[in-house]
């Protein structure tokens, strides 16, 4: 009588172990299905991109490393080794932009420039800061960080500035420095 109980116990144990390992295998498969990899759609060691509008060059971007994440729900492009950009206005006047790191967000049209950002206009105006945003649609730069602005009128320092890409309109906050004034 004791023998059939042992067989029953062995059979139940074998079935339980089989189910346990079978479920573990299915669980791993489910994990793989739900796992989404965060890998770029494109990975370039050098990039030289020309932006045009109606056959006219509006900008040139050069970067030593470009990672394009256009395959994500919120697509962006990362320039992990810095960028060098030249923007052209309608009269082909240039604005030069350099930064140690940048991220361009496709849905919003905002570019986030980080680390020793320097913008120079063809007229000689220079803005330096540690972080700067560029709104591509409105062609407008802005930051809440400390900045240094150098132009023909002098050098000014401040925290918080926004300006047009051609430096024709500049709104600065908390400013100090030596500036010449046209007012008498």
TrEMBL record:
InterPro entries associated with the record: LipoPS_assembly_LptC-rel (IPR010664), LptC (IPR026265)
Taxonomy, superkingdom: Bacteria
GO molecular function: lipopolysaccharide transmembrane transporter activity
Pfam family, one: LptC
This protein's GO CC annotations: plasma membrane
Protein name: LPS export ABC transporter periplasmic protein LptC
